[in-house]
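Morning run. Coffee first, then this:
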Amino acid sequence: METKEKIYNKLLKLVKKDNVKVNERLKDHLYTKLGGKADFFITPTTFQEVQNVVKLSNEDNIPFTLLGNGSNLIIKDGGIRGIVINLKHLNDISSEGNTVVAQSGARIIDASRHALKQSLSGLEFACGIPGTVGGALYMNAGAYGGEIKDVLDYAYVVDKEGNLVKRLASELNLDYRTSNIPENGDIVLEATFNLKPASYEDIKATMDDLTFKRESKQPLEYPSCGSVFKRPPGYFAGKLIQDSKLQGTNIGGAEVSTKHAGFIVNKNNASTTDYISLIEHVQRTVKDKFGVDLEREVRIIGEDSD
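And here it is:
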């Protein structure tokens, strides 16, 4: 890899100077408030800029990482080498007929609110999901009986070669909290959702009910990475953790929530190491007590600190 100065100068030819940061603290940009620094933190404002950065990464063999708002992600304390790209400026949401078109940096919550304003039904389930549209597609996000695959029509992505490609929902292998987006190396730029006309009052009533359920059950008063574990077949992860008497257990500043056992909260300036150690402790304990393997829903990336 070339020197940081050379890479920086190349990036300035592709992206506006204000949107290229060096040694940026990732914890300042993430929902979890965890993580070390990025060598280069890029916030493009156009699809073409994203394509150009991907092509530079390929040509100069620079490591490349796509980052949403980290609502389902833990970054290690050593940070991330190479280029980290964040699409927060690609956040437009529009609608035409029965479709809502949302760029990947928009919050999926805001897409659901836009649908409400247009009296379009189908995205109510997403009214409390804290991630971006891109992140929601990446993991086929879902809640309260709905998920992205129920409403997605197609998406525009940048493939790993830097080409702009249209992907139909049927091509993304959307399944329980998974898709083929990561294995294909795609970067979601925009998603089109196919919705159904309905009464504004009915849609709002459903969203209000789901919001109440979420706020009454989830520990929203602390930073967290959301639901840490996938639902094991035949069980509920939160119930297994609760029955293992793990609520309130802490390592450093990380704690198994006393409000919802499926959440681990950043209660007191936790490090990523605290978080990972507590996740592993929960997995071991549940395995010992019930013989069930808890698979992480949250992703862990980055390097360990020195």
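The chain has a mean pLDDT of 94. Good start to the day.
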